[in-house]
Amino acid sequence: MCIRDRCKNYKVEIETNGSYAPPRWYTLAASWSADMKCPSSGVFGVSDLAWLRMRGQDQVKFVVSNEQDLEFVRDTLRSKTILSQVLVSPVIGRKVKEANSWIQCVAEFCKEQNVRFSLQVHKLVWGNKKGV
Q1: Which of the residue ranges 70-79, 103-112, 113-122 would you say has the lowest mean pLDDT?
Q2: Cα–Cα distance, 90 to 104 (Å, whole number)
Q3: Within the chain, what is the greatest distance between any pair of CA atoms?
Q4: Cα separation of the two ends of the chain
Q5: pLDDT digits 0-9 by tens, 6-20
Q6: What is the DSSP string of 87-120?
Q7: Chain centroid to CA 63
Q8: Alpha-carbon distance 37 to 73, whole Å?
Q9: How many CB atoms lie within 10 A of CB 7?
Q10: DSSP-derived pairing of the beta strands 13-16 and 85-90
Q11: pLDDT band at 127 (very low <50, low <70, confident <90, very high)
């Protein structure tokens, strides 16, 4: 039996940092999740914007840590044709009081822009630790 036949009942989602263009075989995966690097990321400019024009079941995620990042997301939403689902996720810092305020700010931004809000739950549970 061919491996393709044995796996036909499974759906595969592939996550990528978004720095390379979608491969020619991208339709073989049920969906893709690609990061769009914001100005505060330290690697701004490496994201391939072709991920924005993928299928409706695919998603692009912007991880935002400040107002400049939100402005980048706003400008991208305004100036690009976007077919993929858009998620915005706040960077959660070490101080809970500041984190709550930032989380609320990003949630309001998502409502205004009609995009999905995404939390990095592992950071709420275990903190902002490397390798978690």
Answers
A1: 113-122
A2: 9
A3: 57
A4: 39
A5: 667 788 899 999 999
A6: EEEEPP-S-HHHHHHHHHHHHHHHHHHT-EE---
A7: 6
A8: 10
A9: 10
A10: unpaired
A11: confident
∠ Cα 75 79 81 (to 5°): 125
- The beta-carbon contacts of 100-105 under 8 Å, at least 24 apart in sequence, are 105/70
Angle, helix 96-113 to helix 67-79, in steps of 10 degrees = 10
Q: Do 87 and 59 meet the contact criterion of CB atoms below 8 Å apart?
A: yes
Which among 42, 48, 36, 50 has a CA at the least distance from the CA of 118?
A: 36
Distance CA(100)–CA(95), nearest Å, equals 9
